Amino acid sequence: MRKNTIRYWQNIIIIFLSLIFKSAISDFCVFDLLKRWKHVTFMERNKYMKKIEKKVITSYINEIPQKLSQQEWASITDLSISGQIGEEDLKFLCFLSRTFRVLSVIDLTEVTNNQIVGNLQQCPSVTTILLPSNLKAIPDSMFMDCNQLEFISMSDSVNSIGQTAMQGCRKLKSVTMSKSIEFIGSYAFRGCLELENIALGNRLKTIGDAVFQFCYKLKHIDFPATTQSIGRDLFVSTPSLEAINVEPGNKNFSSLDGVLYSEKDGQSDVIICYPAFHKGKTFVIGNNLKIEPNTFYECFLLENIIVDPQNPNYTSEDGILYNKDKTAIIRVPSEKQTKTFLIADSVKNIVPNAFRFCHNIETIKMSDNILHIDGAFFGCDHLKDIRISKSVTTLLGAFQGCKKLEQIEIPQNVVDISSAFCGCTEIQELSIHKGIKHINGAFWGCSNLRKVSLPDSLEEIGNQTFCGCSNLEEITLPTSLTKLGDMAFAGSGIREIALPAIMRIGNGAFRDCKKLGNVTFTEGTICINTEAFLGCSSLNAITFPDSLKRICDGSFVNCTSLETLKIPQNCENIGNGAFTNCKSLSSIHCLSHTPPKCQPYTFDGININCVIHVPTISLNLYKKDSIWGALPNIVTA
């Protein structure tokens, strides 16, 4: 117990000194602090750091670290601050939240700043923030990705909310908005999944792009008469939205029956947004009206769209929205009651999201006249049978979320299938023809995919292409392949892989491939990127090429079955945590005459009996090196 107590206070002192000498803090030091804090057990924390429910301090700019004791850094849950705060103060509060994860409430109402420099991004423990009473503007990205934040209160002095200010605050339920708000920047509330209602006040003039995108629980929104500008895609992916209302007297916008329009010369001009969960079954587009690309982005309850025959831009047939000459399908209402859909021969283009969430359609028949279907069938989760036009050249995101689609033939003219089959969980086998050079995210989440034939023309497997393909156990990569993207095979069922001469293996490319036992590299690979093989717990054999120069941070973390390692002569850098927790490592053969540059935690947690074999003429160099020399068993090869 005495040993644990000493270790605990050593860690606290190190954290304290690093904060006093702020100028000396580097990325490594922060990593080191976090590493040391993780070594303090929860039992020790609870025993020596009893939580302090509330602390009130008065501070001047960048003084907060000195106003709190070492014990309070790790134990305070509710912090009230008065005086003035600076950018370094905000960084310190972020540090407390990210490191100790107990700070829950930050009360800044008595802070005298009317402007704030800096932000409180990614504070994982903070649930409530009360802003200064004199604050004029909330800066860009102020609370971005504070994923536990539930409540924000601002005074009526605030007139501006910056871009991405609350983006990614997933648990944000309530915002006490200023009545003086005039400007809300793009993406300000994007991804606030729990936000149900928000009052925009009566002075709002401008609201940016996609402000409420991915606000899944937002039901109603009211715009004041002062609103002059509304950004694009404001309500994309707000599936619970029932109604949008505009205060009478607004010269720029109007609403009718919960649908948002723009105004021109006193008349409705463009239908901006039909709410996703609007209760109507039928919607009529008048003779002078236009639509925007995402007007009907989601229309879960809509069965029919009717167009006035005098409208110069659009027409409708059987409740389907077309352009005027019927060469393009614009929107099939999501609740269209049909199982088989026959596309007319006149149609050449199916616009993105035309069939979005059409749950009832099982079969689609199209002619070879159709040229474009990118993004067309997203979320058609009962679609089982479709024959793709031979004239189609790209399938970008075409069939995402088509869960019942079992078989599909890719036409020979197709050159790009990026994101085409994401979430198609019933597809088991697919052949990609010669000519396709890039596949990016094409099969993400295809959990039943068992066999894929890749062509010799393939040059790139992009980000997340086979991510989550848990039943894909075998795949042959063509020699033409030169790039493997981030998370390309993460979480897949691959058992062994022979990698061609890929210059760059992406971040997390094979992360958490629990069945992966053997990896062979080909000459030409230069870099293995961050966390490329993290969590590959069955990996027991690796053959590195002589061309390898760099193994990045965390590349082989938790590869607990890895027994031997041969580091080639040209390897110059091995990153922090590259082989952390490789508990079975019994021998490392390093062929380089100059010790590769390592970091303090490169070999953290490996077997203490692991033997390091180095060139005879370089033995002293390795023993004098601060990292290699700390390993206990260095011998000559």
What fraction, in percent, of the residue positions are helical?
A: 10-25%
Total DSSP helices: 7
Which runs of at least 5 residues are low in confidence (pLDDT < 50)?
Answer: 1-49
Compute the gyration radius: what is it? 29 Å
- Indicate the mean pLDDT: 90
Strand ordering within the main sheet: 28-30-31-33-35-37-39
Main pleated-sheet profile: 7 strands, parallel
What structural class results from the helix and strand content? Answer: alpha/beta
Would you count the extended β strands for me?
A: 42
Describe the protein.
The chain has 637 residues and is α/β, with parallel strands linked by helices. 10% of the residues lie in helices and 22% in strands. It is built from 7 helices and 42 strands. Helix 1 packs antiparallel against helix 2.
Topology:
Elements: H1 2-20, H2 27-38, H3 42-48, E1 55-59, H4 64-67, H5 70-73, E2 78-83, H6 87-100, E3 105-111, E4 128-130, E5 137-138, E6 151-153, E7 160-161, E8 174-176, E9 183-184, E10 206-207, E11 220-223, E12 229-230, E13 243-246, E14 253-256, E15 259-264, E16 267-273, E17 282-285, E18 290-291, E19 304-307, E20 314-317, E21 320-323, E22 328-331, E23 340-342, E24 349-350, E25 363-365, E26 385-386, E27 429-431, E28 438-439, E29 451-453, E30 460-461, E31 483-484, E32 496-499, E33 504-505, E34 518-521, E35 527-528, E36 541-543, E37 550-551, E38 564-567, E39 573-574, E40 587-590, E41 611-614, H7 619-624, E42 634-636
Parallel strand pairs: 1-2, 2-3, 3-4, 4-6, 5-7, 6-8, 7-9, 9-10, 10-12, 11-13, 16-18, 17-19, 22-24, 23-25, 25-26, 27-29, 28-30, 30-31, 31-33, 32-34, 33-35, 34-36, 35-37, 37-39, 38-40, 40-41, 41-42
Antiparallel strand pairs: 14-15, 15-16, 20-21, 21-22
Helix pairs in contact: 1-2
